[in-house]
Amino acid sequence: MSPERILSLLGRRKLDEDELDIELGIVRNPAVLAELEHQVDTLSIALTNFVNAFAPESIVLSGYLGVLLSLSRERLSTAVRVDPVGSEGRSVRLERARMRSHLMQIAPAELAFAPLLEDPVTHAPR
C-alpha cells in the first residue's frame, strides 16, 4: 500500500495528504477506484491480522493509510471487528492522525528538544 500507483493513475507526481484527500474525494476514474479498492482490501487484511495478534483498543493511521481510512472508514472498521471465542465482543477504534500533512513539521521541532530529553539535568534551564 503506497500512493505511488494512485498518483501515477491520477497523472500526478506528488500530492500532500490533504491534496490527496481532495483529489480522491472527487475522482471517478475506474482504474483509480479499482486500485483504491485493492489497497483498502490489503489494508483490511493487515489491520485484521494486527488486531488478532495484538488486541489493541485503538489504531491510529497516518499518512497515506490515514487517507485510505478516510475513504473507507466503514469498510475498515468492519474488517477489524473480531468476535473472540468467549461471549464478549471486542471493538477496535480506528482513528486518523490529526496532524495529517503537517506531521513532518514536528520532526524539526523535536530536534531542538532532543538534548534536553536525553539529559534533562545537564540541559535544564538555570
Descriptive keywords:
126 residues, mainly alpha, two-stranded parallel ribbon, 2 strands
Description:
The protein has 126 residues and is mainly α. The protein has one domain. It has helices at residues 3-10, 17-26, 30-54, 63-71, 73-79, 106-118, 120-123; strands at 58-61, 93-96. It has a two-stranded parallel sheet. α1 (3-10) runs antiparallel to α3 (30-54).
In brief:
By secondary structure, this protein is mainly alpha-helical. Helix content is 60%, strand content 6%.
**Main sheet: which strands, in order across?**
1-2
Number of helices: 7
Beta-strand proportion: 5-15%
Helix content: 55-70%
Please provide the ordered H/E string of secondary-structure elements.
Answer: HHHEHHEHH
Low-confidence stretches: none
Rg on CA atoms, Å: 19 Å
SSE layout and pairing:
Layout: H1 3-10, H2 17-26, H3 30-54, E1 58-61, H4 63-71, H5 73-79, E2 93-96, H6 106-118, H7 120-123
Parallel strand pairs: 1-2
Helix pairs in contact: 1-3, 2-4
